Automatic annotation (TrEMBL):
The keyword Disulfide bond does not apply. Belongs to the UbiX/PAD1 family. This is Flavin prenyltransferase UbiX. FMN binds at residues 5-7, 31, 82-85, 117. It comes from Desulfoferula mesophila. It catalyses: dimethylallyl phosphate + FMNH2 = prenylated FMNH2 + phosphate. It is an enzyme of class 2 (transferase). Residues 2-161 form the Flavoprotein domain. SUPFAM superfamilies: Homo-oligomeric flavin-containing Cys decarboxylases, HFCD. It holds the Pfam family Flavoprotein. Its EC number is 2.5.1.129. Flavin prenyltransferase that catalyzes the synthesis of the prenylated FMN cofactor (prenyl-FMN) for 4-hydroxy-3-polyprenylbenzoic acid decarboxylase UbiD. The prenyltransferase is metal-independent and links a dimethylallyl moiety from dimethylallyl monophosphate (DMAP) to the flavin N5 and C6 atoms of FMN.
Length: 181
């Protein structure tokens, strides 16, 4: 899992909490801007967030296990995903471990889910999303749904995280699915 510096770091934090609660192992790569946004947007410290992961990798450690195709995993979620991170992934510009791990995920044909956080979007953003999708990434902006009748912000966050976990093959009960009313 990667947490980059876009607004919406709560998506990454909540995904970590859910995976931890499900007993699912999770490796974390936290960007410097992601760590900065934790302090701005949440009550969580960097240490608290890192403690939710099974393993934490420094973003500068391009020799970490997650940078290798031989490292077996279910897939990767980047939540939130900045446009800068999207751009690097779309162009295979592996300047840090988060981007390298995402690139390796794509080359090994494993699911890469990008919760892109930007609005409004200009054509360049859309072209980057298209390029990343052409390479195999799933673009999943955290757009709220309302069919499950959310009662809180956490309900909205969990629905978006649930969609991402579905794509990674992780069973959960984070939201009521369509037709389960």
């Amino acid at each position: 899992m990667g947490i980059s510096g876009a607004s919406g770091v709560i998506y990454g934090v909540e995904a970590l909490k859910v995976l931890q609660g499900l007993g699912q192992p999770c490796h974390l790569i936290l960007s410097e801007a992601g760590a900065r946004n934790l302090a701005i947007e949440t009550q969580y410290s960097v240490d608290e967030v890192k403690a939710m992961a099974t393993r934490v990798h420094e973003i500068s450690d391009v020799g970490a296990a997650v940078a290798s195709g031989s490292f077996l995993h279910r897939g990767m979620l980047v939540a939130p995903c900045t446009i800068k991170t999207l751009s690097a992934i779309a162009n295979s510009f592996n300047y840090n471990l988060l981007i390298r791990a995402a690139d390796v995920t794509l080359k090994e044909r494993r699911p890469l889910v990008l919760m892109v956080r930007e609005t409004p979007l200009h054509k360049g953003h859309l072209e980057l999303m298209s390029r990343a999708a052409d390479n195999g990434a799933v673009i999943l902006p955290p757009v709220p749904a309302f069919y499950h009748r959310p009662q809180s912000i956490q309900d909205l966050i969990h629905q978006s995280i649930g969609k991402a976990l579905d794509l990674l093959g992780v069973e959960h009960n984070l939201f009521q699915r369509w037709g389960e009313h």
